[in-house]
Write a structure and sequence with these properties.
By secondary structure, the protein is an alpha/beta fold. The protein has two domains: about 30 residues; about 290 residues, Alpha/Beta hydrolase fold, catalytic domain (Rossmann fold, 3-Layer(aba) Sandwich), CATH 3.40.50.1820. The chain is about 40% helix and about 15% strand. It is built from twelve helices and nine strands. The protein has a nine-stranded mixed beta sheet with strand order 1-2-3-5-4-6-7-8-9, with helices on both faces. The longest helix has 30 residues.
């Protein structure tokens, strides 16, 4: 028994040492980051060229799906365009451009052109930096590049981590005609519920995350569904899990003070949408974030984190459409 106890003690010490080392590594990585410097030095390091290019026509829109210079994009262009301002859609952790298509289709039918892209290492976009070393400021550089491609300043829509990138874009780059944040990481990390969920609601996932330096909270269909969708979602747990890709852990460490600093104020009209049953972000924290930015705020009963995948996703998209019209977006 004493031998087994000694082995267990040794294993526990080894695991504790590993976790401390991984934490120190991650904190050192994010402490070395400078957002403005990252944006100034941003470049697309992917192999140049067109990987694929597919177009589909319907009576109401044209859908183009292509991957060029390592970046996957899905663009919906309405046949009868009512609005001149395009919409840029930024996905969150583990996701890609594909996650927006329910809303892209609806918005195209109502006259909006929308552009969804996948960050490097997500969906069909090429890995340019090892996933384990990807940070929020690194991702922000690619979001800025997508916005810079537009012929005019777009509306920015961000989901989850994409909501954090939306906040940083408004802080470090520029104002925009409007911003729509969908279940975003709240402005106050310590009261968000996000870090609590990842740490305590799924302790095994957090342990595996530290060991692999990758966020492991969607490692199975069941864990992905628990974090992201409700039982009435249009995706099954298996369908959702099959589409998710690996994600960096240190972006969660970067969502800690003093590394995470939200804008004190913004000059961009904002809509914030939240789900009542969101396991990742608390409704209370989202309400505080809306108050902080002076945003219009709506909560959807029974909805989980991925609002664009809810059974009533079209009704939620209609709320966005109506709100944009109210803002006088041309």
């Amino acid at each position: 028994m004493s031998t087994l106890n000694q082995l267990a003690k040794t294993a526990a010490l080894a695991l504790g040492g590993t976790l401390l080392y991984q934490t120190a590594w991650g904190l050192r990585e994010v402490a070395s980051r400078n957002v403005q410097q990252t944006l100034a030095m941003h470049r697309n390091a992917a192999k140049p060229g067109l990987l694929f290019d597919n177009t589909r026509e319907t009576e109401t829109y044209t859908r183009r799906h292509w991957c060029e210079n390592g970046i996957e994009r899905i663009v919906y262009t309405p046949k009868k365009r009512r609005f001149g301002t395009p919409i840029i859609m930024q996905h969150g952790m583990w996701h890609g451009a594909w996650c927006w298509e329910t809303w892209q289709e609806a918005l195209a039918e109502w006259g909006w052109e929308s552009h969804a892209h996948s960050l490097p290492g997500h969906a069909a976009s090429a890995i340019q930096t090892p996933i384990e070393r990807c940070t929020l400021d690194y991702y922000l550089g690619f979001l800025k590049a997508e916005i810079d491609r537009m012929p005019q300043r777009p509306i920015l829509m961000g989901h989850s981590m994409g909501g954090a990138l939306t906040q940083w874009y408004l802080k470090y780059v520029d104002d925009l005609p409007a911003a729509v944040m969908v279940a975003p990481w709240p402005h106050d990390a310590l009261r968000s519920g996000t870090l609590f969920y990842f740490t305590f609601a799924d302790p095994l996932g957090m342990l595996l995350s530290y060991l692999t330096r990758r966020a492991q909270h969607t490692r199975t269909p069941a864990s992905a569904a628990h974090a992201l969708i409700s039982k009435t979602a249009i995706y099954t747990p298996e369908q959702l899990h099959a589409k998710l890709t690996p994600e960096s852990l240190i972006i969660l460490l970067q969502y800690l003070p003093p590394f995470w600093q939200a804008p004190e104020r913004i000059n961009t009209p904002m809509l914030l949408l939240a789900g009542e049953k969101d396991a990742v972000v608390s409704e209370y924290a989202e309400k505080l974030t809306a108050e902080h930015y002076g945003a219009d705020f709506f909560v959807y009963d029974g909805a989980a984190h991925n609002l664009m995948m809810e059974h009533n996703h079209r009704d939620i998209a209609l709320r966005i459409h109506d709100w944009l019209i109210q803002q006088g977006i041309p």
